Amino acid sequence: MTDKILANRYRLTEQIGMGGMAIVYRAVDLRTGHNVAVKVLRPEYNEDREFISRFQREAEAASKMTHHNIVNLLDVGMDGENRYLVMEYVQGKTLKAVIQERGKLNAPLACQIAIRILSALEHAHRNGIVHRDIKPQNILVHEDGHIKVADFGIARIADSATLTRGDNVMGSVHYFSPEQARGEGATAASDIYSTGVVLYEMLTGRVPYDGDNPVAVAMQHLHAAPVPIQNLAPDVPPAVVRVCMKAMEKNPAMRYQSARDMAADLRAALEERGDQVPFPENELVVRQPKPQVSAEKGALSNTGPRHTLRMPDRRSVRIMLDVLLALAVAAGLFFGGRAIYEQTIFTVKVPDVMGMDIDEAARVLKQAGLTETHKGMPNDQVELNQVYVQNPGADTTVRKGDSVILVISSGPVPFEMPDVVGKTAEEATNLLTARKMSITRDRAASSDVPKGSVMGQVPAAGTMVTRDDPVTLTISGGSTVVPSLAGCTLQEAEEMLTKQNLALQPSLKYVITENKDEHGTVAVSTPEAENRVAEDTPVQLTLYRYPEAECTASLSVTVPVSDQQLKVRISIRAEQSNVAIDSRTYTLEPEDPRVIEETVDIPDGRAYTYTVYLGDTQLEQKSLNLKPSEEGETNHE
After folding, report:
1. Looking at 29, 79, 133, 191, which residue is catalytic?
2. Which contiguous run of DSSP H or E holds residue 104?
3. DSSP string covering 449-500, please?
């Protein structure tokens, strides 16, 4: 469109910018000879009611503001199908270009630029205007150093288009707030977050979050912490760092509650070091908006050809009004009906798919006439493949065929496996269970690692794991040697095992012998004698049994009636001994019999008792009634 003249007044000389909804030209105002910037709605959106509405809202927003740090609106009009805004022309560069050329900016300069941006935002916010797209590309730096904020009132579409329409919108993703990433409405706090991101970039020369695609960048705004400014620019004063990080808080309630507050803290941060602040203290004082008035009457002029009309008589006026009223009614019915038709046929409200499995969400969106794009991101609070972010949000009106961006859980958040070797078993267990990990503990002999301490772990320290990965800890059990028990009586074996800090496996085994003298003595022990093992390792004993000398005992236990499942344990041991030779556990359902009757083998001639436990509570303790085995009966295992 260069060399085209809009409304017989503005000659377009060169294209100087392009956005998601408009093209910007430098132009000459033929009436004044001054350079101006003319923003023209893209031709493909001339019939798009939504974009036309957004373009008009920008004009309305700009008309409400007059501020020395805002690109001011001069005119608005329509030439044929071309809708345009005329703004003051700023001779210079964008802040983005300045950062790219110079890299990091020194802290005083970065803070002064940020204060001027905040001055513009304070004025806008007090006039009910939220910028919604603060980024260096929208900050103009005049060749004399003056700062101007541009593109007020342009509402970036909060749907799939926001994340997919080329590099210019990709830039927006680097600067928008967590609430915008979630598809929520932008507020004044969102502008403050974006200003914090711009300040971070000025101080460090890079954006705080970057990635291979827009969704990855958006997710970092939601969940990630930026690289500390001190790591990238050690000379930035801590006070400035604190201001920047507060502005970039993910929770809007934790940010500055006004642009004025943030600017005040930046001033204070500069004054702490004695840096010069070459602007008046009252720069953030809000000035009353001055409406832009053309030479003719009216707040905003629609420029174009004008004709001198002769005043008609009263009768002609009445006829003309009747005709115009009839035409207006007809046009209203036609265009109203057409709008309703198009609204019904071509648009749809986005369904709520939050919390759905991705397959179900895709099916629901397809039924609504929409497509979906999804990306997996780790999340500890959301089940695998479940949707936890959708953009645009539920009930947003979009065109049929548009894509809805979904973020689904790819499983728990990975983290480095901590090093627990050398910690006590209790310390290691507490550390890992706090991360909701499942732990299995093995014991091993060790004369080097203190008993009860972790001597090995799987996975190894530093391995990337999630809370779903099982962990095996090897705990030092100290060290002892299995004594030689062959030929010992059971009582002698118990005493020797206790002395060596070993336990008796409470389920004895038996082997038949024809030698009566071997009855009741140890035939085999496992582990075998002389093996080095962990303390408290249970040793399995196999005793000789001479059939004619076998002895059994009977026991009877009555369990209380209950409507719940009960765990009953019966432990059998010789009197004056702490070593159980038998331990049996029973699980009783409410409908099971309440009496347990058993016959047990007695390994030697000592008196034995049995103790009954209900859960962890001792229920009763009784003596076993010994009786000789019946003729030919064997009770060995």
Report:
1. 133
2. none
3. SPTTBEEEEESPTT-EE-TTS-EEEEEE---EEPPP-TT-BHHHHHHHHHHT
Q: Architecture of domain 350-409 in CATH?
A: 2-Layer Sandwich (3.30)
Task: Tell me the pLDDT tens digit for each residue of 279-297.
Answer: 433 333 333 333 333 333 3
Q: What is the CATH number of domain 549-628?
A: 2.60.40.2560
Distance in angstroms (rounded) separating the CA atoms of residues 499 and 175 = 72
Q: What is the assigned CATH class of domain 1-89?
A: alpha beta
C-alpha–C-alpha distance, residues 477 and 498, integer Å: 15
- Of the candidates 156, 176, 159, which has an alpha carbon nearest to the alpha carbon of residue 250? 176
Instruction: Report yes or no: 519 and 546 within 8 Å, Cβ to Cβ.
Output: yes
CATH architecture assigned to 92-287: Orthogonal Bundle (1.10)
At 436-455, the pLDDT tens digits run 899 999 999 998 999 999 99
Round to whole Å and give the CA distance between 201 and 114: 11
Burial of 611 (0-12, 13-18, 19+ CB in 10 A): middle
Tokens representing 250 are 């993910």
Radius of gyration of the chain (CA): 42
Query: Whole-structure pTM over 0.90, yes or no?
Result: no
Phi, psi dihedrals of residue 328, rounded to the nearest 5°: -65, -40
State yes or no: is 402 an active-site residue: no
CATH topology of domain 415-476: Trypsin Inhibitor V; Chain A (3.30.10)
Tell me the backbone φ, ψ of residue 196, rounded to 5 degrees: -60, -40
Q: How far apart are the first and last CA of the chain?
A: 101
Query: What does the DSSP assignment read for 574-594?
Result: ETT---EEEEEEEEE-TTS-S
Q: Which of 576, 621, 583, 622 is nearest to 600 (CA)?
A: 583
Under a CB-based contact definition with an 8 Å cutoff, are residues 451 and 420 in contact?
A: no
